[in-house]
């Protein structure tokens, strides 16, 4: 019987056996972190929450394809990344559709999302949101999820060298964009190191 002490792999094994209580435990364990990641990507609270729900729906329906010898979070973030990419494509096709303005941090997000000045948050969020999909994912996973190059590579299906290259390109783009704003001068230098960006 799965419980709070069960590993992710043990819970997924139970999910494969149609134990919905195990899925509930996985959602409780990962929902907040997944919401933080997706919200930083889409910058719209309602969309982020919808994509979180859709991620776990896909986790359930694809449960038989999960390799219990692999890391659940890597698989989950891969699913979420694909949903974020699909959402970005939809937004580009429907550019005329009105979008919700959500520069304020959403409820239940981690304290790191709430800290800092609103204007600074907005500028950094806009700079990250302007990055191409692959670079945006790399920045979010590296700076906000504290994932290693190897973990990012597994999630994105890229080589470790490719992750390094993407992170280098993202840093240069962000540094160029953010260095124009005096209010966030410390941020470009922070991009050289493993430091969380204040957003």
Attribute tags:
globular, Arc Repressor Mutant, subunit A, Rna Polymerase Sigma Factor, Chain: A
Account of the 3D structure:
By secondary structure, the chain is an all-alpha fold. The protein is built from 10 helices and no strands. The protein has 2 domains: 1-107, Rna Polymerase Sigma Factor, Chain: A, CATH 1.10.1740.10; 115-199, Orthogonal Bundle (Arc Repressor Mutant, subunit A), CATH 1.10.10. Helix 1 (8-16) crosses helix 2. It is globular.
CATH classification class of the largest domain = Mainly Alpha
Structural class: mainly alpha
Separation of the first and last Cα atoms? 39 Å
The total count of strands amounts to 0
Describe the main β-sheet briefly. none
Q: Sum up the overall morphology in one term.
A: globular
- Radius of gyration, CA atoms, in whole angstroms: 17 Å
**Percentage of β-strand residues:** under 5%
**Low-confidence regions:** none
The DSSP helix count reads 10
At CATH level 3, the topology of the largest domain is Rna Polymerase Sigma Factor, Chain: A
Integer count of domains: 2
- The CATH architecture of the largest domain can be named as Orthogonal Bundle
Helix amount, in percent?
55-70%
| CATH superfamily label of the largest domain | RNA polymerase sigma factor, region 2, helix turn helix motif
What number is the mean pLDDT? 83
Task: Report the order of strands and helices.
Answer: HHHHHHHHHH
């Amino acid at each position: 019987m799965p419980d709070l002490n069960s590993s992710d792999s043990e819970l997924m094994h139970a999910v494969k056996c149609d134990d919905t209580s195990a899925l509930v435990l996985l959602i409780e364990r990962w929902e907040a972190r997944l919401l933080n990641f997706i919200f930083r990507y889409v910058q719209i609270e309602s969309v982020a929450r919808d994509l979180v729900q859709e991620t776990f729906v896909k986790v359930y329906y694809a449960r038989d394809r999960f390799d219990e010898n692999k890391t659940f979070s890597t698989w989950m973030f891969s699913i979420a990344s694909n949903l974020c990419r699909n959402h970005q494509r939809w937004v580009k096709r429907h550019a005329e559709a009105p979008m919700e303005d959500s520069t304020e941090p959403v409820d239940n997000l981690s304290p790191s999302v709430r800290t800092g000045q609103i204007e600074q948050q907005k500028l950094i969020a806009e700079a990250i949101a302007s990055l191409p999909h692959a670079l945006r994912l790399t920045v979010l996973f590296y700076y906000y999820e504290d994932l290693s190059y190897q973990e990012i590579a597994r999630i994105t299906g890229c080589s470790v060298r490719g992750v390094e290259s993407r992170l280098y390109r993202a840093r240069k783009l962000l540094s160029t964009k953010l260095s124009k704003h005096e209010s966030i001068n410390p941020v470009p230098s922070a991009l050289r190191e493993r430091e969380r960006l204040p957003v």
